[in-house]
Amino acid sequence: MKRKNDRGFPDRQAIVAFIKANPGKVGTREIAREFGLKNADRVELKRMLRELADDGTIKKKRHKVSEPDALPPTLVADITGRDGDGELIASPTEWDEVENGEPPKIIIEMPRRPKPGTAAGVGDRALLRVEPTNEAEGPQYRGRVIKVFDKAKSRILGVFRELPEGGGRLVPVDKKMADRELNIAAADTKGAQDGDLVSVDIVRTRSFGLASGRVKEKLGSVKSEKAISLIAIYAHEIPLQFSPAAEREAEAAEPANLKGREDWRDVPLLTIDPPDAKDHDDAVHAQPDNDPNNKGGFIVNVAIADVSFYVRPGTALDRDALDRGNSVYFPDRVVPMLPERISNNLCSLVPGEPRGALAVRMVLGPDGRKRSHSFHRILMRSAAKLSYAQAQAAIDGRPDDTTGPLLDPILRPLYAAYACAKRARDERDPLNLDLPERKILLKSDGTVDRVVVPERLDAHKLIEEFMILANVAAAEMLEKKSLPLIYRVHDEPTLEKVHALSEFLETLDVPFAKSGALRPTLFNRVLAQLEGHDYYPLVSEVVLRAQAQAEYSSENYGHFGLNLRRYAHFTSPIRRYADLVVHRALVRALGLGEGALPDSETPETLSEVAAHISLTERRAMKAERETVDRLIAHHLADRIGASFQGRVSGVTRAGLFVKLSETGADGLIPIRSLGTEYFNYDEGRHALVGTRSRTMYQLGDVVDVRLIEAAPIAGALRFELLGSASETAPRDRGRPNPQRRPSFKAHPGRSPDKKRKPAKQKSGKGKKARGNKSKGKGKKGKAW
Length: 784
Prior knowledge:
Region (Disordered): 273-293, 727-784
Strand order of the largest sheet: 4-5-6-8-7
Number of strands: 35
Structural class: alpha+beta
Family: Belongs to the RNR ribonuclease family. RNase R subfamily.
Keywords: Cytoplasm, Exonuclease, Hydrolase, Nuclease, RNA-binding
Helix content: 25-40%
Distance between the termini: 66 Å
Domain S1 motif: 641-722
InterPro entries: CSD2, NA-bd_OB-fold, RNase_II/R, RNase_II/R_CS, RNase_II/RNase_R, RNase_R, RNR_Ribonuclease, S1_domain
Shape: globular
Number of helices: 16
């Protein structure tokens, strides 16, 4: 019953009770509506609320009132760290410590399957729904993330540089801010020393001079070992430490035994990996099929580490693995998805040791097509650990002490089975974009020794093709059992990108049929026509940019690049969470024992997981790419003024991006340095064209450049153009359509040392044809 005084106005106790019953939701309007007050009563209500606030009975803020020191049910908070069990801890963003003392702590309850946009990390600002814990010790509130906001723009990551007179400067790690240092006063350094990686809050900006900042947190020193990757780890908030609970679970895990498993220890499975691989999660074996109805066919066995046996749903190991989404591979370190006890020990298929695995046995016909498959939970013992080059050398007639005894009984049947499988692959005709991948070799001090392009061997292709076959088998099996799963999907290019590519190829007089169904064969036909031609690198790059980006999804829309109707990642559960989900689904579908996918998992919940791990995959790729850029920028920092040959790898309104042939380093030639004339940006041709001379600089052009600036912390390089590296006549690439093209004035007083010859006049136009690379990073080559 709503208590009122003699004048029909609610008394103090009734108003306070209403405020307590509706924390954070009550204002003057809500109270008036609740007690049926008229406009004439508003003055009296405001007076009473002011008295209640003055005597501390309630707290009034803006238009809302609440209990004193109570948090509203929904608020914005900053996630400041983790507790001893690895749980996230947050504090209210708006909290007056002078008036209210130390802010209350909020422990974040993260669901095992966070919704898209709610996967939070340390340093994030998020919208929370909170409630009191009513516990005497520990955080006063618990909260759930409703939405994660973008990082506050006032927070910058950079390297602190001391000044002799005290204080210092912040050198930002972001390429876009490489030339925007911040001044940090001596009182605001928080004890940071020269070379420390720090996060800084901007406290003041100026119209002239440097902005000022205050050190918020010290993160480590870039002078230490593995410092360069540390920058990317913190910049992209990649979890570096496992929670204590996850570490305890990993240490308590025991080796697998024969309980619930088939004994495959006598099957001579072997692993083939890069020479520096730390974990070995897949093993292969093949033999001719002795079935008279399958003469010329093969039986291929692919065994994958049984991670689902150790990482159970809902455990701390599972939460940490999902948070990471995947392992991240830097030149100087690996940030694993799982603790070393799991990834490098119990789930690493090392030679001679019994290991649990999930295996698929596939029967290939003589045409290379898969006729049948079956899945098995096994105990295996790897017969050998080989590198790609080691396996290939043995097949090529150069066996060593390890491969010699394996050559006839194991390696030759493997290669024969691959030759058989390749027939079906060639008939399927997946997208053939075999672009070279560079690898950085480091010295003992962590600096760059050299950059190499590893030779693409049949050993690489063998493992890649067997893994693809196993992934297809997993997807087919789970579809047959009507189990939810996470697909690896790759959409076909959009019509806009296909049209833009077609118009671009027209400028090169390269035919491109746009009618009919879109298939990878269409792109392969174009590339095959130009193989060995001067155009080939250019066209390969443009075809790649026309492709969509591969991702994870609980809905299947096929894999365009591989030309497959269904595809799922099954072969790397040590380093990819998607594969772990597929393993759990297979265990559940086939009744293989413990570690199965819970019944609560649905396509809806898995769609949230798929969205999250797609983001973590892109985060990893960006962090890996930025670390390579920083390492090479450090490597080239003492070669300012040196000349290099490279190829134009990007064309924008800002200028030309050039990839150096020697190291693969990317740098910018600003448009202002190209000459004294205006340059039009032609999107369709991926080119900058001089309005007066018709000089054209196009994607794929081979050029000579001089390095004029290097920013190692940001990984940024700046070049100036020396000219075309080729003295041959220019290619007939056509003249761009001048209509409605933006113009950019080159820097006056500067001219190129060597000018390109004018392009032959020819009409042509095109729409923007940019795309995302779908080339995945992984030890088995392109992940798609």
